[in-house]
Write a structure and sequence with these properties.
α7 packs across α8. The protein is globular. The chain has two domains: 175 residues, Isopropylmalate Dehydrogenase; 137 residues, Isopropylmalate Dehydrogenase (3-Layer(aba) Sandwich). By secondary structure, it is of the alpha/beta class. A twelve-stranded mixed β-sheet has the order 3-4-2-1-5-12-11-6-7-10-8-9, sandwiched between helices.
């Protein structure tokens, strides 16, 4: 039986609540290890508490809890430096266990970058953290749903910095990660990929920027010569009004360009996946929702989708 780790995220957000709801959903097919801290108001029933990673495979229970910062008291809707540190400690331990082979996949509930940065100022996000921890020089933040799949060439950087992060070598490497992941985890023999332009009208032959001509199109030509089925560059404003569903992955140069249409179409069921890690990592595609934490209003649908996708990728 495969083992999936689930990180609670910020204990003052909706992570504890959606995990509790998920554990009662009767739709879980693998052993689960929950990493993190819980507020006193959330009690996980019928689980085994562990203190050592070696206990994971030995335990008889199908749901285990690896608590962190048990001495702290967390109140839903009241994030702090301590809650950020608890979230950080959970993902650090889960990533270590995945790299050491104690668990087969990591599924993450939402955390607050700001509150983690109060103790770890260099923290950018889950994706970058796991990639750095695993010493992965290239990785891809991607999003999957039953409506469309999106991969990003850049992740959490300022819009003014996007162009400076793009180069032919990086794009070729990232698109190879995407193509290989679709083959390996989703059993698509010859993935069909679409590449969006960076500039309005995909640059219109240099009229609105030169990145398409200097970087994106040369990268595509290399990839095609290597046997990858990729077309573009497509103007992003009109692409999503066309038959985007015929592509196995739509590749966007920057964060919001790909995620605005994705979240409009699949906010409740979309799944964030980090491609290129030595293990499977999926996540909800929503935030901590501190405003409704502890009010029993949060939906577990995205977390269930993230677990289901991890299970599918493990097949």
């Amino acid at each position: 039986m495969a083992i999936i780790g689930i990180t609670i995220g910020d204990p003052t957000g909706i992570g504890p609540e959606i995990i509790k709801k998920t554990l009662s959903a009767d739709a879980l097919n693998h052993k689960l290890v929950i990493y993190g801290a819980l507020p006193d108001s959330v009690v996980l029933d019928n689980i085994a508490i562990i203190s050592n990673s070696k206990e994971i495979k030995q335990a008889d229970s199908n749901v285990l809890w690896y608590p962190v910062m048990k001495e702290e008291k967390f109140i839903p809707g009241n994030p702090s430096k301590a809650s950020g540190l608890a979230a950080y400690s959970a993902i650090k331990k889960a990533g270590e266990d995945a790299l050491n082979g104690y668990i087969d996949a990591v599924v993450t509930a939402p955390l607050s970058k700001h509150h983690i940065q109060l103790s770890h100022s260099d923290f950018i996000g889950h994706t970058e953290f796991f990639a750095r921890q695993a010493n992965c020089p290239e990785f891809v933040m991607s999003f999957f749903s039953d409506k469309l799949n999106v991969g990003l060439l850049t992740t959490h950087c300022a819009l003014s910095d996007v162009a400076s992060h793009l180069n032919v070598e990086m794009i070729v490497a990232k698109i190879h990660i995407i193509n290989n992941s679709l083959i390996k985890f989703f059993h698509i023999a010859n993935p069909k990929l679409a590449l969006l332009g960076l500039n309005p009208h995909a640059g219109e032959k240099g009229a609105f920027g030169s990145e398409e001509l200097r970087i994106l199109i040369p990268a595509m030509e290399i990839l095609r010569d290597q046997g990858i089925d990729i077309t573009g560059t497509y103007p992003a404003d009109t692409f999503f009004a066309c038959d985007y569903s015929s592509y196995d992955m739509i590749i966007a140069p920057y964060h919001d360009q790909g995620l605005i249409p994705f979240k409009m179409l699949a906010f409740d069921t979309g799944v964030n996946v980090t491609l290129g890690l030595p293990y499977i990592r999926t996540s909800v595609d929503h935030g901590t929702a501190f405003g409704i934490a502890g009010k029993d209003q949060a939906s577990e649908r995205s977390l269930l989708s993230a677990i289901a996708l991890a299970e599918k990728m493990l097949l």
